[in-house]
Design a protein that fits this description.
flat, mainly alpha, Arc Repressor Mutant, subunit A, about 180 residues, 3 strands, 6 helices, 2 domains, 3-stranded antiparallel sheet
């Protein structure tokens, strides 16, 4: 299909790869996680309880970083999980700004029941590829992810520095 955007071949190649990667990732997510509806969970809710199951209780901020979610969206997800009796929140005594999230006993039983279906869903998706192709995909996506994470880390440091300078300026000028 022709593109309306006129670009050099290397840009067209990048755009084509991006679209294919995004579509494939979306399809993998939908197919691998379709079993979650039988348990009354969304993909975001499962991501939260899976992270807590494997890594243990953690702060909402760390949890948002782990599951690649915005803190605003995560609060709603945790609210719903808490409403359903699957997690509970607790303020950290030494730092009242920090709220830790933990799984309830009910949720631990649920995830033990759910994990075999989850593993089966992922295995079903990757049976479409040969083992060597899975290894190549793993290597390429890891390389891309690590390179981009470095950029994200650099950007986060730059944003913190700008925020610090702005705060200092306001403090000095009394604004």
């Amino acid at each position: 299909m022709p593109h309306r955007y006129a670009s050099p071949p290397e840009e067209r190649l990048a755009l084509d790869a991006y679209v294919k990667l995004w579509r494939a990732a979306h399809a993998v997510e939908v197919i691998a996680n379709r079993h979650l509806t039988a348990y009354g969970l969304t993909t975001s809710q499962f991501a939260v309880i899976e992270a807590l199951y494997h890594l243990g209780p953690m702060s909402q901020r760390l949890l948002a970083d782990r599951i690649l979610s915005s803190s605003g969206n995560l609060i709603m997800v945790i609210d719903n999980l808490e409403r359903d009796g699957l997690v509970h929140r607790e303020r950290v005594a030494t730092d009242r700004r920090v709220v830790n999230v933990t799984l309830t006993t009910q949720c631990e039983a649920l995830i033990v029941q759910l994990l075999p279906d989850h593993v089966q869903g992922i295995s079903e998706v990757f049976r479409l590829l040969e083992p060597e192709e899975i290894e190549q995909l793993t290597s390429i996506t890891r390389k891309l992810g690590l390179a981009l994470q470095g950029r994200l880390d650099d950007e986060a440091v730059a944003v913190k520095a700008r925020t610090r300078r702005t705060t200092l300026r306001r403090g000095v000028h009394g604004v």
